[in-house]
Amino acid sequence: MTSVLDTLLTELRTVRGPIRSADLAERIGVSESALSGMIGVLVAKGRLSPAADPGAGEAVACSGGACGSACVGLDQCAFIANVPASYTLIVDSAVSVPGPVGP
Amino acid sequence: MSGFVVDYGPDVESAIDRLVDQIEQAPEVNAPYAPRWLAAALLDEDPGLAGPLSALEGGSDLITTRDRLLHELRDTLGDSADTAIAAARFQVANTIARAATNESTHHSRDRTDRIDAVLTNRYLGIPIFLALMWAVFKITTDIAGAFLDWIDEAVSGPIAHFGASLVSLVGLGGTWVESLVVDGIIPGVGAVLVFVPILMALYLALAFLEDTGYMARAAFVMDRVMRGVGLQGKAFLPMLVGFGCTVPAVYATRTLEDERDRVLTSLLVPFMSCGARLPVYVLISAVFFPDYAGLVVFGMYLLGILVALAIGLVLKRTLLPVTSHAPTIMEMPPYRMPTPRTIWFHTWTRVTAFIGGAGSIIFGTMIVVWFLMSIPVGGSGSFADTDVDDSAFAAVSGVVAPAFEPAGFGTWEAAASLLTGFVAKEVVVGTMAQVYSVDDEGASGADPSIGDSAREIGTGFAGAVVGALRATPGIIGIDLTDGEAADEPSSLMSSIRLSFEESSGGYGAAAALAFLVFVLLYTPCMAAVAAIRQETGARWMWLSIFGQTAIAWAFAVVIFQGAKVIGL
Question: What is the pTM of this model?
Answer without folding.
Answer: 0.76
